[in-house]
Amino acid sequence: MNLSKVPNIKNLDSNNFFLLAGPCAIEGEDMALRIAEKVISITDKLKIPYVFKGSFKKANRSRIDSFTGIGDEKALQILKKVSETFNVPTVTDIHEVSDAALAAEYVDVLQIPAFLVRQTDLVVAAANTGKVVNLKKGQFMSPSAMKHAVKKVMDSGNDQVMVTDRGTMFGYQDMIVDFRGIPEMREFAPTVLDVTHSLQQPNQSSGVTGGRPDMIETIARAGVVNNVDGLFIETHFDPSNAKSDGANMLHLDHLEGLLTNLVAIRKTVNSL
C-alpha cells in the first residue's frame, strides 16, 4: 500500500507512524466534528499522518437493544462533512456487500471488521471499489493466515490494502496481543495495531463489552517499539456515555499526552 495515495493525508515526510482515530460510532454531527477538530490539532502539531475513523453503523452487537447507528445515509454524510471541513481522509467499516459501494461514495478507506474478514464476497466488494481496504485480523486467526485475506484484495486488482491486529481471544472474556505477529504481517502488508479493541473484555454476562483503557499506553508503546506502521485508537470526550465501546476507549483529553510519548519513542526507534 502506498499511503500517499490516501486522499488528503498529511505529514507523510515525518517518518512517524500513521494514525486511524475517532469515535467508535458516529453519534451525531457535533460530536464527530468536535472529536475530529481536536485530533487534527494534535496530529498536525506532532506531524502524524491522520485518518478520521467513525463507524456509520454497528452490526456486531451483543444485544438486540444495543446502539446500531443514527441512520446509514445520515452518518455517512457526517463522515463526508468531517472530510470536507478539515480536509482529512476518513475510514469506516462495512458489514454487507451492498455497504461497499454505498460507503465508498463518502469515505476514503473501507474497513472489514475482524469477525467478517474471511467473508470473500465482502472483501472482494470492498476491493472492487478501488478504495484503500483495511482488513482487521480475526480474533480467531493467526497472523500468517491474514496473507490470504490480503491476497483476495490484490487478486481483485487492488494493491491498496493494509492489515490491523486487534488482539486474539484469550479464553472467553479477554484479549491478548501477540507482538510476534507484527513483523510477520508486515512481510505482506502495512500493519496497524488496534490499541483500544485489543483491550476489550468481550462476552460479559451483562451483554456489554468491558475493557482495560488503563493499559492503552502499555500496548501502544509496545507496538511502536516493534515498528508497527500505524496505530488505531478509538477516542471520545465522554467515554462513559459513548453509545458503543465506551469501556475500552481513550478519553480525548489523554490523547495528546499519549501521542507525544509515542512520537518520542518512534524517534528513538528510528535512530537505532
TrEMBL record:
Q: Which GO terms describe its molecular function?
A: 3-deoxy-8-phosphooctulonate synthase activity
Q: Does the keyword Transferase apply?
A: yes
**Primary enzyme class:** transferase
Q: Does the keyword Cell membrane apply?
A: no
Which Pfam families does this one have? DAHP_synth_1
Q: Where in the cell is it found?
A: Cytoplasm
* Keyword tags: Cytoplasm, Transferase
**Which family does the UniProt entry place this protein in?**
Belongs to the KdsA family.
Q: What is this protein called?
A: 3-deoxy-8-phosphooctulonate synthase
Natural source organism: Asprobacillus argus
Q: Which gene encodes it?
A: kdsA
